[in-house]
């Protein structure tokens, strides 16, 4: 929402919904005008939400003047109130009810009427074609003039206006009318393309029910979902959609989480498990405690992050923008020379030369070229999010497919992240139960998966009170029980602090060779017991590694676990391993791996934060958690590590789509450029070269919405 203008002595923040900003060309035009507006700074446009946010120093440019500039460009700004309803309602507007749709219908109707006149009363047809041309050209001329005043005299609107008026001047009214109509259709197609991609994400908001069954003192009553508060208890019957993100307090059921995670198979859940708004409860009655309000639930945050991602341009998109800024003035110059040089050489007016110059203006319109990248990126991001593959911007989407190495964390990434205690081995006089009891007491305050597994195994045992608990990152957890110090840590830590006998070392080695992780309970001056744990590989881990190799990537395991355990896991999955790594070691290794090409780091988003940040693309595993959604460049919202191969497939499909789009846009123009210069084709084919390319680019980009994860790394449905 915009702040009050008069009270603020310094720059103010303005947040607008911009009507009609529904194509990449519109965005570029607005951004160019704002760059040349005194006092305007930090402008951020978002094509998906049709929003504009900026800071404005009103001592240099009043807000009213800024808003008038936007209106002159053909866009009405309205202060945004961050309500979802307005945006979604606008996104659902049918094409024929939009401003551009009405223009297409009006100019098309006049064109059809003029054609009928040409059959019945030919002298009137010229006036009909001229009227169709002027009606269609008037809004373009206004936008061109506004863009010129804002410092962009060579906008696409300028090219089409000059071409249409030039065609009228040389007596080609029919062709002028067709030019304007086809251009309007091309702009409408751009808006339709963006709207289709946008609706795929915004449809998620309609998955959550409008009302919830709220439990209050044993009574069930209906309450609007928007009124739910954290802590409310809701009843979810079989067949119902879950009304809010929450935690199951009672019941057991299978839930279809596909709206959030893309996981097509219903997931069994019980007390203590999380549920997401929009998931379908298939068979059991659940009582759920609300953990997030509607505006902050997982679906809302996914939509927000995808919208932010679509505002982040890929490197190839920035290149196309820079290219088109140079390309358009060059086209105007070439068209002018094509028209003027023959006339100067002949010393007389040559309508054929002027005709060719006008045709070149139309061929030079870069609409399809400018649309080629953002249309594909928007479709790719939307398709990924619908399958639980959240990519936070065009730049990481481009980088994933170009990577050469995929580095995996072990625990919670390649493995289930739910280690279980397999062996408890006393090393002295303490019985097995006492070793487990003391170790669990020391680990009570730790959130590490190994610590949780030990505490879980000790369930039912009376745990002594501990003091001075302390975690030594990557090494051990220490605490004092009574007046005696204890530690639960790695064998390396135990060797460094109290020493391990050769016999104990052999026992540790034997356990580790079975793929188990061993921790050592130590006292003041001796090792008291060994606890072995095993975390099984994910069911799809082997498939993920195989698919990545087939895609030409080098999978690597980076783990802080001991070398023998790491090698056992790596051997079973068929990938190379670097073990016994501290967080700083992982950071260094990622830097080393980047020398051979781009690196994708896959981790749980918490312990691997430094390595995720240092990689070219960080991918977080998680089922819609805050960490998975906020920390990395991409997130797998389901629990399948094979989603990494799907991300690579999505990225490569998107980049292929972009290359095809650029080839369509440039190839058609090149063909018609040659035929126009040779006098074979004229104005109609010239505008078709742009509108046709726009239609091809639009249709091709929308194919990405049919992306399906699969064994080949992901496929696009034809």
What report would you give on this structure?
The chain is α+β, with helices and mostly antiparallel strands and 718 residues long. It has five domains: 12-96, 2-Layer Sandwich (Alpha-Beta Plaits); 100-200 and 306-378 and 653-708, no CATH class; 209-296, Calcium-transporting ATPase, cytoplasmic transduction domain A; 389-415 and 537-637, Rossmann fold; 420-534, 3-Layer(aba) Sandwich (Calcium-transporting ATPase, cytoplasmic domain N). Helix content is 50%, strand content 19%. It contains 25 helices and 28 strands. A seven-stranded mixed beta sheet has the order 14-26-25-24-15-22-23, sandwiched between helices. It is elongated and about 110 Å long.
Give the uncertain stretches in residue-range form: 1-8, 82-91
Mean pLDDT: 81
Number of domains: 5
Percentage of residues in DSSP E strands: 15-25%
Count of distinct strands: 28
Describe the sheet with the most strands: 7 strands, mixed
Q: In angstroms, what is the radius of gyration?
A: 32 Å
Termini gap: 42 Å
What class, by secondary structure content?
alpha+beta
* Secondary structure tally, helices: 25
For the biggest β-sheet, the strand order reads: 14-26-25-24-15-22-23
Please state the overall shape, judged from the principal axes of the Cα atoms.
elongated
- Report helical residue fraction: 40-55%
């Amino acid at each position: 929402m915009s702040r009050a203008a008069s009270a603020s002595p310094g720059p103010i923040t303005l947040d607008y919904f911009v009507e009609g900003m529904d194509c990449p060309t519109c965005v570029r035009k607005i951004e160019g005008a704002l760059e040349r507006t005194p006092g305007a700074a930090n402008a951020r446009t978002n094509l998906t939400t049709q929003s504009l946010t900026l800071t404005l120093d009103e001592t240099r440019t009043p807000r009213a003047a800024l808003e008038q500039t936007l209106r002159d460009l053909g866009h009405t700004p309205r202060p945004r109130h961050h309500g979802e309803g307005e945006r979604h309602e606008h996104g659902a507007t049918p094409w024929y009810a939009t401003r551009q749709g009405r223009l297409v219908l009006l100019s098309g109707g006049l064109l059809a009427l003029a054609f009928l006149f040409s059959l019945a009363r030919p002298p009137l047809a010229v006036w009909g074609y001229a009227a169709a041309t002027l009606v269609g050209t008037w809004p373009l001329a206004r936008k061109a003039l506004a863009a010129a005043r804002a410092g962009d005299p060579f906008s696409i609107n300028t090219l089409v206006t000059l071409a249409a008026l030039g065609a009228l001047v040389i007596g080609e009214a029919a062709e002028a009318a067709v030019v304007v109509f086809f251009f309007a259709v091309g702009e409408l197609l751009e808006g339709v393309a963006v709207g289709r991609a946008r609706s795929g994400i915004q449809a998620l908001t309609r998955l959550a029910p409008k009302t919830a069954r709220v439990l209050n003192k044993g009574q069930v009553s209906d309450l609007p979902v928007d009124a739910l508060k954290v802590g409310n208890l809701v009843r979810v019957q079989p067949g119902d959609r879950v009304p809010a993100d929450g935690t199951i307090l009672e019941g057991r059921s299978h839930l279809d989480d596909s709206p959030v995670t893309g996981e097509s198979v219903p997931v069994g859940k019980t007390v203590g498990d999380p549920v997401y708004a929009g998931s379908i409860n298939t068979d059991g009655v659940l009582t759920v405690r609300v953990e997030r309000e509607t505006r902050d639930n997982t679906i809302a945050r996914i939509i927000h992050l995808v919208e932010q991602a679509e505002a982040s341009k890929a490197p190839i998109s920035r290149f196309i923008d820079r290219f088109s800024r140079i390309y358009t003035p060059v086209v105007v110059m070439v068209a002018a020379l094509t028209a003027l040089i023959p006339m100067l050489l002949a010393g007389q007016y040559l309508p054929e030369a002027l005709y060719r110059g006008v045709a070149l203006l139309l061929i030079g319109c870069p609409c399809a070229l400018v649309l080629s990248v953002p249309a594909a990126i928007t479709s790719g991001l939307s398709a990924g999010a619908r399958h639980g593959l959240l990519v936070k911007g065009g730049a990481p989407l481009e980088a994933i497919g170009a990577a050469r190495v995929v580095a995996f964390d072990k625990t919670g990434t390649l493995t289930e992240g739910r280690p279980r205690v397999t062996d408890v081995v006393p090393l002295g006089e303490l019985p097995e139960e006492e070793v487990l009891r003391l170790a669990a007491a020391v680990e009570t305050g730790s959130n590490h998966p190994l610590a949780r597994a030990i505490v879980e195994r000790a369930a039912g045992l009376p745990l002594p009170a501990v003091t001075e608990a302390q975690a030594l990152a990557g090494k051990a957890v220490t605490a004092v029980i009574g007046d005696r110090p204890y530690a639960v840590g790695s064998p390396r830590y135990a060797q460094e602090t109290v020493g391990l006998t050769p016999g104990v070392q052999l026992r540790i080695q034997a356990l580790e060779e079975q793929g188990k992780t061993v921790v050592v309970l130590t006292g003041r001056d001796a090792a008291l017991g060994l606890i072995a744990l095993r975390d099984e590989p994910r069911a799809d881990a082997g498939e993920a590694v195989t698919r990545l190799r087939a895609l030409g990537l080098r999978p690597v395991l980076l783990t802080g676990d001991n070398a023998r355990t790491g090698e056992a896991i790596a051997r079973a999955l068929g990938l190379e391993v670097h073990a016994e790594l501290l967080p700083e070691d992982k950071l260094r290794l990622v830097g080393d791996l980047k020398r051979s090409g781009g690196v994708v780091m896959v981790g749980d988003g918490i312990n691997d934060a430094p390595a995720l940040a240092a990689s070219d693309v960080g991918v977080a595993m998680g089922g819609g958690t805050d960490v998975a959604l906020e920390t990395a460049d991409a997130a797998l919202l389901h629990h399948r590590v094979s989603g990494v191969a799907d991300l690579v497939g999505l990225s490569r499909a998107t980049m292929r789509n972009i290359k095809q789009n650029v080839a369509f846009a440039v190839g058609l123009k090149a063909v018609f450029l040659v035929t126009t210069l040779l006098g074979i084709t004229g104005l109609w084919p010239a505008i078709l070269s742009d509108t046709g390319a726009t239609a091809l680019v639009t249709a091709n980009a929308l194919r990405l919405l049919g992306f399906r994860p699969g064994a080949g790394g992901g496929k696009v449905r034809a």
